[in-house]
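Human: For the file, kindly provide a plain-text protein record giving the amino acid sequence and the C-alpha cells, at your earliest convenience.
Assistant:
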Amino acid sequence: MTALTRWHVGPWTTRGTRPGETPVPGRRRTTDELNFDVVGLARILGRRLSGRDELQVRLWQNELRPTHTRRCGVHTLADPANAQLLHETAQEALAWLAERAPAGYEFVLTDAVELRPLLDLTADVVAVEAVVQLTDVPLPAARLATAHVRPGWYAGDAVCNWSGPHTTSDEAIAAVQAARSELVDQLTAAGHAALAATADRWPAVPVEHA
C-alpha cells in the first residue's frame, strides 16, 4: 500500500461532531468540517479527482477554512444541498479508503476516520493489535510489538517512540520483531496459546519512508 505514507491504529483525522451531538467549538469539527477532513485524507493518501471535483473541493475549503488561523468547530456550509454533496463525496472517499486498508485492519468512520484491527482470528492476516485487544492480562511486550518504524529509524506509535533511534530501518524492524517474539511467550504463559498461535499470520512490521 504505497499510498499509505502514515501508519497507526486509531484516528487519522481530527474528531468531529456527529449528527445529533452537541457542538464543541474549538475542540471538535462541525459535521461539514469532518466530512471535508475525510475527503482531504483520501486526497493526501493518493485519491485523484477530476478537475471539476478538485475545484469543488477548493470551494468547500474556502467556505470551511477561510484562514489558516480559523477556529475549528464553527464553520458550516450555507447551502444544505452543498452540504449534502459534501457528505456524499465524503462517503465516496471513505469507501476508497476502506478498499486500501492494510490486511488485518479496516477504516471506519466514527467521530473520526479510524484504522482498527479486525478481530477475526481465522483470517489469513491477524493484526497484532487484535491479539492484544482480545487478551485480558497485561502484556509488557505489547507496546513495542505493535509498533511501526518511522524515518530516523524509531519504532513506536503515532505519538511516541518506544525504541531507537537505530542506525538502519532493519535494526528498528528487528527490535519490533524481538518484541513480537516476547509477546508470543507472554501470551503462552498467560494461557492464551490460541492467540499466540496466530503469530505466523501477523503482518510484516509497517515501515514509513521519508
About this structure: The longest strand covers residues 105-109.
